[in-house]
Amino acid sequence: MMTPALVAATARVAAHRGAAFRARSVTLAGFGALVLLAAWIGEVDLAKLFRGLPMIGDYLWRTVPSLRGDHLADDLHDWFWGLREWVILLGDTLLIAYVGTVFGAAVALLASFPAATTLAPDRVVWPLRRVLEAARTVPTLVFALLFVFAFGLGPLAGVLAIAMHTAGALGKLFAEIHENADHRQVEAIRAAGGTWAEACRFGVLPQSMPGMLSLGLLRFEINVREASVLGLVGAGGIGEELYLAVRQFEYTDISAILLLIMATIVGLDSLSGFLRRRVIGVQ
Q1: Can you say whether the dihedral through the CA atoms of 243, 244, 245, 246 is positive or negative?
Q2: What span, in angstroms and rounded, lies between the C-alpha atoms of 243 and 256?
Q3: Exposure string for 190-223, b = 16+ CB within 10 A, e = fewer
Q4: Cβ contact 199:118 at 8 Å
Q5: pLDDT number for residue 110
Q6: Which of 14, 15, 114, 246 has the highest CB neighbour count under 10 A?
Q7: Helix or strand or coil: residue 119?
Q8: Which of 223, 236, 216, 218 is nearest to 152 (CA)?
């Protein structure tokens, strides 16, 4: 036989479960309503989507070259007919991404210490965080258009565009890594008479370095893809050749160039993983 206390406890549990169920139902209903509203504003048309899917498949099929077993070498030669030029342009893309990443990461490193809430006062953190937000909010392609207009066609515009966006993105991430560091070392350095810069250099940076390197390498991979697109606006690299192939409907050239870019990204990912393991000491 249930005691009054047990009855009351059971009632409270049932009431709690009922309230939790109602809260979940309201949340799901609100989420569904927002999805429907977004679909309506975005003019999502499922009929048009299903009509367009076969066209996507047809376009992709056109990029697949004809490879015959008895003439495989000749077919591969015809497919990658511009390999030497494409490799040179891909090297330009890698250099654009590399230089832009290095410059952007250097700016991000310098800005990350005064942007960390645990290392600087709010009157310094707040405006610097807004500057970093502005730098990463503007798309890289827009920066590239601006710098192409200012400095003309060529890799310089791509380098500056990538550096600007990288500084904004990594500056925030580096600052958050600094905030998670153990600040007892900072306090010890300051108590021993060290300056704020020395406390950041010897107290925070050694702790943050593995995470910063990992994020920097990830950003470099992203920037290689970004640099491949910047050629669309004349910022140099293999993107110009890819854009030309798309405009001229050179379907097999499109697939060849994309395969080169994909192979480069895979190689960079493997290299980044190796470097990360070496830094953090994982075999």
Answers
A1: positive
A2: 13
A3: eeeebeeeebbeebbbebbeebbbbbbbebbbbb
A4: no
A5: 94
A6: 114
A7: coil
A8: 236
Element holding 60 (H helix, E strand): helix 46-62
How many other CB atoms are there within 10 angstroms of residue 63's CB atom? 16
Distance of CA 194 to the CA centre of its chain: 37
The reported pLDDT for the residue numbered 281 is 60
Nearest to 113 by CA among 196, 29, 35, 224: 196
How many whole angstroms separate alpha carbon 278 and alpha carbon 283? 7
For the chain of 283 residues, list the mean pLDDT of each consecutive stretch of 10.
64 74 87 90 84 86 83 83 88 91 95 91 91 91 88 87 94 92 85 87 88 88 86 79 86 89 85 74 54
Give which of 249, 170, 179 is closest to 215, Cα–Cα. Answer: 170
Question: What span, in angstroms and rounded, lies between the C-alpha atoms of 269 and 279?
Answer: 15
Q: Does pTM top 0.85 for this prediction?
A: no
The residue assigned the tokens 């060529």 is 154
Cβ atoms of residues 189 and 198 within 8 Å: yes
CA–CA separation, 235 and 149 (whole Å): 10
Angle of the 251-280 helix axis to the 238-247 helix axis, nearest 10 = 150
Token digits for 111?
């800005």
